[in-house]
Amino acid sequence: MRFRTYLFDLDGTIVDHFKAIHRSYVFTMNELGLAKPTLQQVRAAIGGGLEHAFTKLIPAEMHKPGLIIYRKYWDETMLDDVELLPGAMTMIQRLHAKGTTLGVCTNKHGHSARLICKHLLIEPYMNAVVGAGDTPWLKPAPQMVAHTLSLMGCTQNNSVLVGDSPFDIQAARNGGIACLCVTTGTHSKHELEAEGAEHVFNSLDEMMEKLDL
After folding, report:
1. pLDDT at 126 over 80
2. Sheet order of strands, 129-132 included
3. Is the per-residue pLDDT at 47 higher than 90?
4. Which of 100, 116, 174, 190 is at 20 to 30 A from 32, Cα to Cα?
5. How far apart are the C-alpha atoms of 70 and 29, rounded to whole Å?
6. Measured between alpha carbons, how far is 18 from 138 in angstroms, rounded to an integer?
7. What are the φ/ψ torsions at residue 103 (nearest 5 degrees)?
8. pTM, rounded to two decimals
9. What is the distance between the alpha carbons of residues 119 and 198, in angstroms, rounded to a whole number?
10. What is the rounded distance in angstroms from the CA atom of residue 113 to the CA atom of residue 125?
11. Hey, where are the domains in the chain?
12. What angle (nearest 5°) sits at the alpha carbon of residue 141, between those of residues 101 and 125?
């Protein structure tokens, strides 16, 4: 498994942002008069973008006001409680030192994704950071992968998407590239393998060991 181009998902893959996301849902649902969601409920809902997660947690008639509340609170607090997952910086720096081209392909809002990458000091290593709102598509649409690779000046050849969810597996498959998965996010090894993942690791450290990075 030798790749020249790595696309990284963010949440659950190289970034732990679950506390901030959960806090934002708690605030939003409290403002809407809804019961406080558990961290487990929020983790199970996210992955397909904010609007998709809302369909699992908030009644349809409350989506419009809920999104306004959530986004305002999120913009004010998103950099609180966000951190890189263990091994993320080491992996990024090692790949960069080897001349590998790196980028981010996420269903998190693009503006938020870029602020987070800058805050966590990984922005200088990324040739592109693409998220929701930057294109008409979200993962697993094949155009999302193709657009990100194009911005990076790369092709499908020897490219891989590193992620933690079925959305990432489907996006890689649809985009014609390989996929490496970790169980540090929203899905178990069994769930990822059931979706068709060929390579699933318990952590980025294990992935680096297996890839000999």
Report:
1. yes
2. 129-132, 101-109, 5-8, 159-163, 178-182, 200-201
3. no
4. 116
5. 9
6. 20
7. -160, 170
8. 0.89
9. 32
10. 14
11. 5-16+83-211, 18-77
12. 20
State which CATH number among 3.40.50.720, 3.40.630.30, 3.40.50.10350, 3.40.50.1000 fits the domain covering 5-16+83-211: 3.40.50.1000
Q: How many alpha carbons fall within 13 Å on the CB side of residue 60? A: 0
Sign of the CA dihedral with 9 first, then 12, 15, and 21 last:
positive
Per-residue pLDDT tens digits for 48-80: 789 989 999 999 999 999 999 999 999 999 999
- Quote the tokens at residue 194: 């059931």
Which of the following CATH numbers is that of domain 18-77: 1.10.150.240, 3.40.50.150, 3.40.1190.20, 2.30.29.30?
1.10.150.240
Show the DSSP H helices in the chain as ranges: 18-31, 39-45, 50-57, 63-77, 88-97, 110-119, 142-152, 166-175, 189-194, 204-211
- d(Cα 42, Cα 54) in Å, to the nearest integer? 10
